[in-house]
Amino acid sequence: MTTERDVTPTYEGRAYARPEEELVDQGLRFDIGTLLSRRGVLVAGAGAAALGLAACSDSGGSADSDSGTAASAEDLAEIPEETAGPYPGDGSNGPDVLEQSGVVRSDIRASFGDSTTAAEGVGLDIELTLYDMANDNARYAGAAVYLWHCNRDGEYSMYSEAIANENYLRGVQVADADGTVRFTSVFPGCYDGRWPHLHFEVYPDADSITDSANAIATSQIALPQDACDAVYAEEGYEQSVENLANVSLETDGIFSDDGGASQLPSVSGDVTAGYAIALPVGVDTGTEAGGGAAGGGMPEGGGPGGTPPGGGESTG
């Protein structure tokens, strides 16, 4: 007699969550289970080197950065809580990439699922090293990071009209034993009224990322001006030149309180080889997470929000 157990397909000994669908369409929870089963020591709390998922493999290879280990944690400060802006894609205001199978990936340059369109631009490797400030600044192994940013035209996938059907430049990684996550992306453009930046949310573990309310930190990364100046001189970034000239870290609505002091990463590389940035991120679970929703994290009195092309008014 044929039973359901006989006909249900499996992957690495785990029954498909959606037997009628292909492996890549088994859903985020199945992907996370695969990730954690491959990283058994991480489940035990020790952490392990990051491994890729067959069900949501990277479209463009490794995200290893030539910048080396992120800056020292000496004098580490808690990463400032900032707004996630109106284009988070985390389900807090509609679109939710965190529920999609395939979002756990290090290479975020291309869309996944129904589209494989890749964002164009100068290469950018991103390395974040997380520290658990409530645990004597121990490396935060096992924490999950969701990172996203605009493309070189200042548009956000899933929101801006021209790329509403794309989900590129968004991805999740789980911190390895050193508390480090790495992403391969492209250098974002500068849209009117905002300093060039990346967004990220930190979750206590991989299982938590399916609900944005579980985020324990929400912040932004300010891109160094020298790198911006060099990149925006390249073809395709023309509109960013004027936009950058009209804003500074001191006038930006997010970074103006301290000039982005703890949100400016170290940087290496050039426009030919691509850039690599690295930033230590202090996360204090003993303090209340105050970012997230659009408008959160804005300095007193507000500030310029900016208008991404085709995306409407922005506060972050």
Automatic annotation (TrEMBL):
Pfam families: Dioxygenase_C (PF00775). Gene3D superfamilies: Aromatic compound dioxygenase. InterPro entries: Intradiol_dOase_C, Intradiol_dOase_core, TAT_signal. It comes from the Bacteria. Residues 140-193 form the Intradiol ring-cleavage dioxygenases domain. One of its GO terms (molecular function) is ferric iron binding. The keyword Oxidoreductase applies. SUPFAM superfamilies: Aromatic compound dioxygenase (SSF49482). The keyword rRNA processing does not apply. Residues 288-316 are annotated as: Disordered. Keywords: Dioxygenase, Oxidoreductase. This is Protocatechuate 3,4-dioxygenase beta subunit. The lineage of its organism: Bacteria, Bacillati, Actinomycetota, Actinomycetes, Glycomycetales.
